[in-house]
Amino acid sequence: MSAPLTLEHNLIANGHTLIAGIDEAGRGAWAGPVVASAVILPVQDNTLAAQLAGVTDSKKLSAKKRDVLFDVIQTVATSIGVGIIPAAQIDQLGILNATKVAMATAVEQLDPMPDHLLIDAVNLRQHLNISQDYFNFGDSRSLSIAAASIIAKVTRDRMLIDLETEFAGYGFAKHKGYGTKQHQAALNDLGPCREHRFSYRPVALCNQAQLFEDTK
Prior knowledge:
There is one protein chain. The chain is an alpha/beta fold. The protein is 48% helix and 14% strand. It folds into 2 domains: 6-165, 2-Layer Sandwich (Nucleotidyltransferase, domain 5); 167-208, no CATH class. Strands 3-2-1-4-5 form a 5-stranded mixed sheet. A hairpin with an 8-residue loop joins strand 1 and strand 2. It starts with 5 loop residues before the first helix and ends with a helix. The model has no long low-confidence stretch (mean pLDDT 95).
């Protein structure tokens, strides 16, 4: 089932014309960037729901289905922006602030600029002077947010797959930087690489152990 357009249609009825859905991917991962996307859909198009049939929370979709819908969204959307904050900057800012910067960057890339934001779970009022609503489970409640969740997820997954070539042995192509048993085993064997988030406890503990071994 696709995410609905009810929120967008209510905003259109209240005078808004350009509505951006915003979501992120990679917030909980131990490695790699956090990636945010902002998507403006032509919500006044009566055929939009049919064109984006199947677009919902990216976590509910298979990787193959996400790849297909990624291309469809790229074709249908009025505008798409992407913000990427690398691991080292996440360590400096903290993950919540890094997520907000990524989301704000994604919005700033949009052309035309939106007049309202629908955001999954994050308050951007200190970062963007645009009217906005934020709420939990937004990628299941708004087609615009669901589209952004797919763009962010596929973009990030492809980046992690590319990292597998440079950092062989960590399994990035499989677990995408998240905290799986495979990832933990690789950390124990190899120690962290520069794509890891050293402010995250599992990586920090592994790094301390590695440093201790190196000084023995």
